[in-house]
Amino acid sequence: MNTLFPQSTQLLSRSHYPVVVVGGGQAGLSTSYFLQQNGIEHIVFEKNRVAHSWRADRWDTFCLVTPNWQCRLPGFPYPGDDPQGFMLKDQIVDYVEAFARRIAPPIVEGVAVSHVTRGASGRLEVTTSAGHFTTDHIVVATGGYDIPIVPAYAERLPSHIQQIHSVNYRNPESLPPGEVLVVGSGQSGVQIMEDLHLAGRKVHLCVGPAPRSPRVYRGREATEWLMDMGYYELTVERHPLGEKAREKTNHYMTGRDGGHEIDLRRFAREGVRLYGSLANIQGATLEFLPDLSRNLDDADEVYVSIRKDIDKYIAAQGIDAPVEPEFEKLWAPGVDPLSLDCEAAGITSIVWAIGFRPDYRWIELPSFDGRGNPKYQRGVSPVPGLYFLGLPWLHTWGSGRFLGVADDARHLAEVIAGRLAAAETGETAEAGAATLPQAAVA
Questions:
Q1: Which superkingdom is the protein from (predicted)?
Q2: Segments of 298-430 assigned E as strands
């Protein structure tokens, strides 16, 4: 394995660290940055390489959805000359690797953490592929994209129809000749659909309930308007949906070719076949819910509501900005299609783009709900010494992005520093620690 930081015998020679960080992506590296700022000894375990998921789990034309100016890792804002652009996959890897070189974290690559539990001494026991360690605090910065979701009924498809998850999609040429069905209209689904469509492939798309967003509106990038309006600082506690905001799909748009919004109605006019949510598979026949029209309308409703919020902000601030015409629907499906014969349509491959689910089975601590999701308040678990970072809506809308991870990492480092200081002085108060509501720890 080619690594930025070859395994350090010195780091692995110790069996105890005050803090262990699991994950060497932007979240784990940001944690290391602030732990170093606080003078806290720690080790970072990365089972692959720094920036592995960006390097290995994205398709060839992948790029950021948010502009480069939002890349604000701690002490290392986007260093390039195109702040309004959208970094491609390899550029994202370069950015994260450059950040890692800048901060020189105590990281060991190629070491996987397989088990975490509470030992008899009260310390956390950490089992890794490089041996056994103990720690007082562990920060889980592995992200929540562990297990690709593919429905059980996918097994009913004929074996000659190739199935892959979006995490394994690379380019149109990697799929067999024939028509392609993409299942899912979140960010990955619509961008893969466009990738295939631009390559001249005949594409079918199952449209789910994901919302969409403007790209440029009234003379300015919509993300810039939203930044000024404080949207990225909206906390999950202040969100109208509360904790349920974490379950919502991100708005779809793209940074491809300089960035543009994605209107699925336009793609339908260009020949992409649209269907509602996939409900079942019987042999080569796909069955859909009658929700295509509703899902398209709902996505447009969110799109229009964002434009209206920007309009209100412009008016309230007295900003001189060009006025744009009212939104109009370019296409409507008429009757929602309810079934599709893959054989008759010539579909030879299916790309599942319906997301991931987390896998925290390696953490044997009582900090998860009945669905296996971690419980925390701004990343601080009700289990002493356990923390999470880098998850969507961990604290704000920006938490799962390059934009907000630094603030969350700074907060966790301050909580850990306060707890370590309190432990040294024998105090029971935990400086800077979050207090979870009783319902959250039940």
A1: Bacteria
A2: 339-341, 347-352, 356-357, 386-388
